[in-house]
Amino acid sequence: MILENPFESLSTEELDLLTDAIPLITILIGGADGNIDHDEMEWAKKVTEIRKYNNPDLLHSFYELVGEKYDNQIKQYIANLPDDVDARTKEISDKMSMINDILPKLPIDYQEELYKSYVSFAHHVAKASGGVLRFFNVSSEEKALMDLPMLTPIINEA
Questions:
Q1: In this structure, what is the dihedral angle of CA atoms 81, 85, 115, 100, given to the nearest 10 degrees?
Q2: Nearest partner of 22 among 59, 107, 87, 12, judged by Cα
Q3: What is the residue-level pLDDT of the chain in tens, covering all 158 positions?
C-alpha cells in the first residue's frame, strides 16, 4: 500500500536527515580511503537521478526530495565535514545513527525499503571506482562501511 505522504509524521529536521543520508553516504563511502573520488561522486549523483524512477514505487517521492537538494547538500557537507578521514567517518556515522530513531516513525514497508535503499546506494558508490575499467574494486575501508553498520537492519517479517 502506498501512502500519499508517508513522511507526514516526521519533523522537517527528521525528513532532512533521511534525505541528507544519501549525500552523507556518498561522502562516507567515497572518502573512506582518504580521497573523495570524482568518479564515485559522479556515479552517486547518477544513481540518485536513476532512483527517482527505478526503485520500488514507495520511494519515488523520497528520491524526488533527495534530488532537489543533493548537489547543494553534498557541497555543503564536503565544505563543513572534517578533512581527516577518521574524524569525518565518525561524524557521518554519528549523524547517520540518528536515523535509527526516525525510521520506526514510518510505516514498516517504508522502513524496510529505505534501509535497503541506503545499503544498496552505499554498495553502488563503493563499486564506482578502481578495478576493471575503474569499476568493481572496493577498498578495505569502503568494504568496512558499505553495509552501513551504524544503521540497525530493518526486516519486515509480515
A1: -70
A2: 59
A3: 455 678 888 999 999 999 999 999 999 998 888 877 677 778 788 888 877 777 667 788 888 899 899 989 999 999 999 999 999 999 999 999 999 999 999 999 899 999 999 999 999 888 875 544 444 567 788 888 999 999 999 877 76
Q: Which three cell numbers mark 157?
A: 517479517
Q: What is the pTM of this model?
A: 0.88
Query: How many CA atoms does the CB half-sphere of 104 hold within 13 Å?
Result: 6
Contact 99, 114 (CB under 8 A): no
Tell me how far the alpha carbon of residue 156 is from its chain's centroid: 20
- Using alpha carbons, select from 111, 121, 106, 120 the residue that is nearest to residue 23: 121
CA distance 34 to 144: 14
Contact in structure between 126 and 120 (CB atoms under 8 Å): no
Q: Evaluate whether 129 touches 40 at the Cβ level (below 8 Å).
A: yes
What one-character DSSP code corresponds to residue 33?
T
CB 59 within 8 A of CB 113: yes
Q: How far apart are CA 20 and CA 60, in angstroms?
A: 16
Q: Which of 11, 23, 120, 124 is nearest to 80 (CA)?
A: 23
